[in-house]
Amino acid sequence: MGEESTSNSKPDDNVTNNNGSYESPVILNVYDLTPANQYTVWLGFGIFHSGIEVYGMEYGYGAHDFPISGVFEVEPKSCPGFIYRCSVPLGRIKMPPSEFQAFLENVASEYHGDTYHLISKNCNHFTDDIAQRLTGKGIPGWVNRLARVGAFCSCLLPESLQVTTVKQLPEYHPCTEEDGTGSMSSANPHEPTESDDGDQDKHLLSPPVGSCEVSFIREVQR
After folding, report:
1. Residue of 213, 187, 217, 207 lying closest to 79 (CA atoms)
2. Annotation says 49 is catalytic
3. Which of 46, 52, 67, 196 suits 139 as a labelling partner, its CA being 20 to 30 A distant?
4. Quick one: which of 177, 220, 212, 210 has its CA closest to 81?
5. Among 5, 13, 16, which Cα is nearest to 89's?
6. pLDDT tens digit sequence for 100-158
7. Annotated catalytic, 155?
């Protein structure tokens, strides 16, 4: 597609200026959800997943069955289960990494895994929202075109596609202390308890090394 472009971000693209300020490119990484995209993309349609890359990590939004954040981070261009297609530079931001992390944790509370919807609130809606907030520029229209068509006439979409979501199963762990002395629990997911629901400042941390490549983002108290 003529609208696609590629970008190879490098660690030194994230700059600390002489005055101590920080700067990072904002990049949209796009993935194919199905090999059929190789044929349908030339007709202007495709089924895509996307993530936003900032400060050397990529952030996406996926579905799960729990009323907590579905926002997760992965190594750029390597989201598990999808086929990397291309990258699109969207601009640059000037904020400290800590400020960006606080921004992301706040946004995470707006994107719970159990509110994911293929047509009205999917991974591409998330990346478009993040891009707009950070740069004032949305993602290219072709990335989420199928959802917009489905919003007008869902009968045009195959039944199997209408119920498909980008699933990412969170694994729950207690928070580690700042000094790293906290211990990890079992990697088995569990249903949130009543006390879990009462604690709005939840953490979904990286599972033990080798068990999963997806790390869920904690959401701040609202």
Report:
1. 213
2. yes
3. 67
4. 212
5. 5
6. 999 999 999 999 999 998 888 999 999 999 999 999 999 999 999 887 665 444 444 44
7. no
